Amino acid sequence: MIIINVHCDVNPTRREEFMDFAEDLVNKSRQDTGNLFYSYFEDALVPNHFLIVEHWQDQKAVDAHNQTPHLQTFLKTANTYLTHDFDIQVSHTDN
Q1: How are strands ordered across the β-sheet holding 35-42?
Q2: Going by C-beta distance under 8 Å and a sequence separation of 6 or more, which residues neighbour residue 72?
Q3: Gene3D superfamilies this protein is in (predicted)?
Q4: Which pLDDT tens digit goes with each residue over 5-18?
Q5: Which one of 17, 19, 65, 89 has the largest count of C-beta atoms within 10 Å of its C-beta?
Q6: Which residue ranges form the domains of the chain, and what is each CATH number?
Q7: 3-state DSSP call for residue 84?
Q8: Chain mean position to CA 57
Q9: What's the whole-model pTM score?
């Protein structure tokens, strides 16, 4: 399994718009082949810090997801909502 965490610091004036944007990404990504889990969360202690969490069956599923229109839109548009570039962390498990 591949786990991807995307840390996003959102401009407070665009918070609600980002949440709608992220919700659309999550709903579409959950339908992608090989997706095991996909959601986003706001940090309870750090306002406007969001974490997108993805679990994928394998690298093939990640590669296919990376080519989808909804992820490409996210990658091209996300910075308009953020205070700086997002941070992506990837880990692999045997499960």
Answers
A1: 35-42, 49-56, 2-9, 87-92
A2: none
A3: 3.30.70.100
A4: 999 999 999 999 99
A5: 65
A6: 2-45+58-92 (3.30.70.100)
A7: coil
A8: 16
A9: 0.92
